[in-house]
Amino acid sequence: MSETVNTFEAQQQGRPTGPLVRGYEVIIGFETHAQLSTASKIFSRASTAFGAEPNTQACAVDLALPGTLPVMNKGAVERAIKLGFALGSHIAPRSVFARKNYFYPDLPKGYQISQFEIPVVQGGSVSFFLGEEQKTVRLVRAHLEEDAGKSLHEDFIGQSGIDLNRAGTPLLEIVTEPDMRSTAEAVAYAKELHKIVTWIGICDGNMQEGSFRCDANVSVRKPGDKLGTRREIKNLNSFKFMQQAIDYEIRWQIEEIEDGREIEQATVLFDPDTGETRAMRAKEDSADYRYFPDPDLPPLVIAADWIERVKATMPELPRAMAERYVRDHGLSEYDAAQLTQSAALAAYFDEAVNAGATPKLASNWITGEMARRLNAAEIGIEAAPVKAQQLAQLVKRIADGTLPNNAARQVFEALWTGEGSDVDAIIEAKDLKPMNDTGALDKILDEVIAKNAKNVEEYRGGKEKALNALVGQVMKASDGKANPAQVTELLKAKLG
Questions:
Q1: Among 22, 148, 464, 466, which has the highest number of CB atoms less than 10 A from its own CB?
Q2: pTM of the predicted model, to two decimals?
Q3: What are phi and psi of 328, to 5 degrees?
Q4: For the segment 373-428, what is each residue's pLDDT rounded down to a tens digit?
């Protein structure tokens, strides 16, 4: 349970305007709950393991039974500090826990321990590419809190069950400014944040298990108008549903406004079966929760030396790694961003380069042919049949002129399907070595020129594209074994 921090109109001055939808500007802000990767809960020693029998992992502290006191989990704090470093945020040396009061059947305490006025992580930003355009979303805060339990509706007829295993599970709630202007931008932001929290190891990112779930606050307005009334779409647990839910909500709000009805602030749920959102309850504001400092928890004090110790354990961050790829390997910012989509992908690239692959060629194959194959097979780079050492061997054969592109794709296919495991052996077995017989190549050139008089005439008339057609015919006649650059130069010489 959370609420978006209200943002002043002044903060929106100068913010980019995205593509209009039927003449309306879309405004989106996010609240993301990242379950922290601690073995025990945020204020108790109860296990956070997923999949246990209902109500077997909720202890007396989680239920706030009389005589119990919460004790802060040090590991949860350290994970919050790591997020602060990763996002360029301010880490508060002193923050306060508060009780957020509301009634819900799966909240046995009648309140949730969270942070309100002074969160542990303040400010920061998330940058990412949308296509080849770089975007930045500003963050308001990230605060520590405990999760509630879970209501179970599917297994009961006419009633609901309550599973309190999640009660007390440690969360970081990450809140953005309303900076996103399209569904595509919102999904790209969520994917980037998901990458960051998994990269630094503070969250396993399993959306199906609820470890990473997003609430999207959506409103629309005519360009230049004040911010519209937002509706919060709760618990989006897949990027596909996120896109569908936001798109539907945008259309629904526009239609309501154009039909003369006002948008009422509300919390809504997305139904993937119907593709629609439906109102769950009127949206609360902070005053409705009657926040007050939790009397059982002292302020959280984070000393400077503790921050430095956590900093020393941080891995190289994606943005720093991408900058290194641009600086050391001469890659474009876009290619570097693509290669740092996950720690496993970056490790694969590094291994290929360390094995002798030309960085730019390796990048092209990983983000091109490899990415296409992985997407089609719906697997990650960790499960790729072509290992980094094999790709490096393939790239080296391309770089030294042994393999033209067409032949290289045949070798890649053999590696992917398991037809072979050694690049040189595949080249020999498939007779893919380049054509070195200049006499044979010269004969093919003469035959192609003789059979393609129209292209020859067009090239001599100044149409450069006609030469490409002739090169293609030569490559076809040579079964892809000719060197395209050599063919181009020889054709130019023959055609004068």
A1: 148
A2: 0.81
A3: -90, -30
A4: 999 999 999 999 999 999 999 999 999 888 877 789 999 999 999 999 999 999 98
For residues 478 and 441, the answer to whether their CB atoms sit within 8 Å is yes
SS3 content of the chain, % helix, strand, coil (to 5): 40, 20, 40
Query: What would the pLDDT profile of 11-63 be if each residue is shown by its tens digit?
Result: 444 455 678 999 999 999 999 999 999 999 999 999 999 999 999 999 999 98
Tell me the sheet residues that pair with 220: 26
CB atoms within 10 A of CB 337: 23
Burial track 269-303 (b if 16+ CB lie within 10 A, e otherwise): bbeeeeeebeeeeebbeeeebebeebeebeebebe
Question: Which residue carries 């998901």 as its tokens?
Answer: 194
Could you count the other beta carbons within 10 Å of the beta carbon of residue 399?
A: 15
Token pair for 184: 């595509």
Q: Which amino acid is at 322?
A: A
Contact 281, 88 (CB under 8 A): no
Helix (H) or strand (E) holding 254: helix 239-258
- Joined together, the tokens standing for residue 187 give 């999904």
